Amino acid sequence: MGLLFDDNSREAKEYGTYPIQTRYDVPVESVPGQLLDIHPYRDNDGIEAGANLLQALHDVRIRDGRNASDAHAFEIWFDRGQFSFRLYAANDRASDRFQRRTTNTYTNSEVTPRTTGPAFPELRPTDHVAAATLAEERHTFLPIRHHNAEGFEHGDPYSDIMGEMLTLDDSLAVVQVVFKPAPKDWTENGPNGESVGDVATDLRNGEVAGFKDPLFWLGIRELEERDSSSKDKEAAKIVEQQRGEQGFHVNVRVLAASPQPREARERARGIASMFAKYYNATSEQGLDHHPVKATDEEMQQLLVKMFERRWIDRGMILSIDEVAGLAHIPNKDIEVPQIPWKSTQSGSQIAAEASKDEANTTDVATDQEASSDDGWPTDAAADSGED
Question: Helix axis angle, 92-105 relative to 46-57, nearest 10°?
Fold first, then answer.
């Protein structure tokens, strides 16, 4: 067993491995939705574009008074020596929208439906599997760190997350973010019927501590109270500012597999601990990682959820900006090998760039003829690359 000491929970986390007994080969034909391959162009807006994409994909379906929206997924695979990025659309209509929106938002990136091949990296009888799930440390209305709140001090967290995913050529690692659009009243009707106003009031009164005690969730122990700190009072303002924002119900899962049990453990806990490290906000909200027990029942249940991209209600609701930090297409800032970058621009973009360059050349020549100053113009129109 592998042990990881967690500074937040002040307890040891035990990562075990589960020996695979049979081959798990999930063909794309066997899943109800559509799996999309993403080949990112290096020069894109990364997390910021991810927020724009998620906003375009937020499509809530209410049926008989309940949220009947489909759950979709974003995934990063490191499958025996190669990174790949996937979007899972739960139905054909969503697949079409995902393709159009992704190529519009991430200009020059390529999105193609996967018609053959695996819908999940193959697990072999020689593999040992280790896994973890992620949960918030405090009430879900307290935001985790994201690009529009505090920002990421050391750049895109994917640099270290994907660095931890790098494993042996006969091994693999998967990060899966399942997201389901939340109704517009999510900030007024959260877990246990609470509103952002309720949580903000509790923060000002010092009544929102860490939520990691399982006895609290079972209704056995009352929520611990503490003196309201300046951080909590500032957090109360942030919580209230979420009114009107769009949100998603989210599950985050991490899986690693290797013929070497120690490698599987190290990769699973390394990846999960990077999420715990980089998404902590000054309000003490962050992500805590929970190893999946290496029992037949627990691991089999996890594998089914990951294969099916199944969403389970864990009371984790995140704003679009929060989800974007967890699920986005990376850009050239990520200096990790084995990323399948798309090296060429699309034809329409090349034509647009050529037209812009020609127009700029004409403008410069005109300016030089009309001016006695030999210097270049100080301001030139910048092409954002967005449609």
Answer: 150
CA atoms within 13 A on the CB side of 236: 18
For residue 293, report the phi and psi dihedrals to the nearest 5 degrees.
-60, 135
- Contact (Cβ atoms closer than 8 angstroms) between residue 13 and residue 289: yes
State the pLDDT confidence band at 233, using cuts at 50, 70 and 90. confident
| CA distances in angstroms from 138 to 238, 242, 258, listed in the order given | 14, 16, 33
DSSP classification of residue 72: E
The per-residue pLDDT for range 37-92, each reduced to its tens digit, is: 999 999 999 999 999 999 988 999 999 999 999 999 999 999 999 999 999 999 99
Tokens of 137: 């440390």
Q: How many CB atoms lie within 10 A of CB 336?
A: 16
Residue 232, pLDDT above cutoff 90:
no
Domain ranges of the chain: 2-326, 347-387
Give the 3-state secondary structure of residue 380.
Answer: coil
List the beta strands (DSSP E) in the chain.
Answer: 2-6, 11-15, 18-19, 34-39, 62-63, 66-67, 72-79, 83-89, 110-113, 128-136, 172-181, 247-258, 287-291, 317-319
CB atoms within 10 A of CB 290: 14
Would you state the pLDDT for residue 153?
Answer: 83
How far CA 255 is from CA of 239, 259, 371, 376, in Å, comes to: 32, 14, 64, 54
Give the C-alpha separation, 81 to 88, whole Å: 22
Q: What is the pLDDT of residue 206?
A: 81
pLDDT tens column, 115-166: 999 999 999 999 999 999 999 999 999 999 998 878 888 899 999 999 999 9
Phi/psi of residue 159, nearest 5 degrees:
-55, -50
Helix (H) or strand (E) holding 353: helix 347-370
Q: How far is 248 from 43, CA to CA, in rounded Å?
A: 27
Residue of 370 and 63 predicted with greater confidence: 63
Indicate the pairing of strand 11-15 with strand 18-19: unpaired
Cα angle vertex 82, ends 3, 346, to 5°?
A: 135
